[in-house]
Amino acid sequence: MKRNQKLIFMAGGGTAGHVYPNMALLGPLKERGYEVHYLGKHKGMEYGIVKEAGLPFHEVNSERFFRYFTPKLLLTPPRVIQGIFQTVRLIHRYKPVMIFCKGGFGSLPVAVGGWLTRTPVVLHESDMTPGLANKLCMPFSRKLCVTFEDTVKHLPADKAVYTGTPIRASLLEGDRAKGFALTGLDPKGKPVLMVVGGSSGAKALNDAVAASKEQLLEHFQIVHLYGGKQEDYEPPVSDPSHGYYAQDFAREELVDLFAMTDLVLSRAGANAINELLLLKKPHVLVPLPLSASRGDQILNAEYFQKQGFSYVLDQEKMTPETLMDALLKVQENREEYIRAMSSDKAKNGTEEVLKVILEVCGDQ
Q1: What is the C-alpha separation between 30 and 89, in angstroms, rounded?
Q2: pLDDT tens, N- to C-terminus, the chain (364 residues)
Q3: pTM (predicted TM-score)
């Protein structure tokens, strides 16, 4: 098969954290003359983000991998197999030179389809330990880029490459005044606390904010990104005159919201915490507990805490009192946290991942 040496397929979806690192690579790839097509589900979060970026989008079926038995698990094999055949057809039609997969359940059929057509596949893992999707994709890949240097020790030496994670450079281009204009908060008022639980939200954080709201507003103005629809959760209503702004999630305006923010309360997804590191925003992390995850966010948060970047509060120990105490401690010691983050010598993930992609493409 004669390849289109300037065409790359990308995949990765399910959450924004599996999509935005791909978006960070678009500018550098375009500067090199590459065209990018995205493979995913029209019903997935990736579709809206990718279409906003103006990329060609191709439907490839997939299904979530459950770590426990549920009748929905029976749908996974046939849908993944369908996605593999869809990927193979797309590869034969467009002939990409390589495929870059960011993880999430949408990556598996694309990686297998690439392997079947002898199209080189490069993976990226954001967390300290590979997720299930990347573990399944690894045999079909040529390289696995990782965010944390320690992760390399636990992976095949011929595949693992320490690169850091691609971060959107536009995050550094936010406008503080635009953020205040959008939210209606007071630019001369109290410090701004941003609460963000990820693209799908974090009910535990949302409930904690609701329980502590009056106390929090004594010290902070609040930008509350509460996420998508959550069971038994009534979305809050903005009240800028009293220092409270609420929105489900932010896209292009996120850069301006970050620019106006002094302190962040967040989950500990790898993409989110690396964005906080890039922006040097003091923060409190509340990682997903083991009861609701494989423990990846706990490992991410522990690593950042050891580096002096983060204050970590376990969800099981989060009360209005412990939350208030954590936020005030970080605010009081904000310069110390900023110095620690400023001294970080982590690699520029966008540049390093780009090097791996170009090497695999034979573009040196």
Answers
A1: 25
A2: 899 999 999 998 777 777 888 999 999 999 999 999 999 988 877 888 898 889 999 999 987 665 555 666 677 788 999 999 999 999 999 999 999 999 888 899 999 999 999 999 999 998 888 888 889 999 999 999 999 888 998 899 999 999 999 998 889 899 999 999 999 999 999 999 999 987 655 888 999 999 999 999 999 999 999 987 777 778 889 999 999 999 988 888 999 999 999 999 999 988 899 999 999 999 999 998 877 677 789 999 999 999 999 999 999 999 999 999 999 999 999 999 999 999 988 778 999 999 999 999 998 6
A3: 0.86
Determine the Cα–Cα distance for residues 142 and 160; give it in Å rounded to an integer.
9
What DSSP character marks residue 310? -
Give the containing element (helix H, strand E) for 337. helix 334-342
349 burial via Cβ count (<10 Å: 0-12, 13-18, 19+): buried
Cβ-based neighbours of 110, under 8 Å, separated by 6 or more? 9, 11, 39, 60, 83, 87, 99, 101, 121
**How far is 109 from 81, CA to CA, in rounded Å?**
7
Look at residues 103, 143, 105 and name the one whose alpha carbon lies nearest to residue 127.
103
Among 265, 250, 274, CA closest to 167: 274
Contact (CB, 8 A) for 62 and 80: yes
Structural domains of the chain ordered from first start: 4-164+347-361 (3.40.50.2000), 175-342 (3.40.50.2000)
